[in-house]
Amino acid sequence: MGSEFWTDFWSQKAQLQSDFAATGRGRMDIVAFLYTINEAARLLDLSPTDRLLDIGCGTGILTLALASRAGAVTAIDVSPVAVERARQTLSDVDGAEVRVGSITCIEEQASSFDKVLAYSVLQYLDSIESITKAFLEIRRVLRPGGRALLAANPDPAARAKLEARLRATMSPEDASAEISLLAKTLWLPPSTMSALGKEVGLAIEARPIHARIPQHTYMFDLLACRPMEDTWNNSDSGKCS
Length: 241
Hints:
Number of strands: 7
Organism: Roseospirillum parvum
Pfam families: Methyltransf_11
Number of domains: 1
GO molecular function, one term: S-adenosylmethionine-dependent methyltransferase activity
Shape: globular
Domain Methyltransferase type: 53-149
InterPro entries: Methyltransf_11, SAM-dependent_MTases_sf
């Protein structure tokens, strides 16, 4: 498993005709998606003056849904194909910036954003070290007092039930393919993820996902803040090793 696998995977998804399928939400109905939008805005406490960074934006439909609730949006994704489609999605959003980028190496200067969203992103990293890099970057680009929602992280405690449900509701071939993909993602318990965030200076807590959002049965959210008193300032940008 590696980052190239997931870049290729999401590049292929981004070429699908359906916007929902192209962004990885092909099984999510419109009501669940509306709850996803509302929960993201609520947990981030978005306001019209906020500068928002959406990491792992995919084809940009969630970015588009949140753009009217923020002052300015920047969206990044590791897939150039997804980024090109996101540019089309966000073409009528004033001031929206869309480019290729990674959660472990964010180009912007320190303290550039009031809010950061990374929806279903951390699970596609390949190691605890990569998670730590991601948390460090989030702390760096958030302003003191800024907030990040790192949403939809798979919980290993729920993995067996999820795989059993897939086998019970899908054909053997489809279930096997889905379970094979799940095996390529990173499953870390909420306690481990929270501890990693705290180690790099974030105030962070794990939270359950809203019951109207399908992922609530096997995933959890992380809500993180850069403490207001945090005076650490690394202004380097785009110089990741």
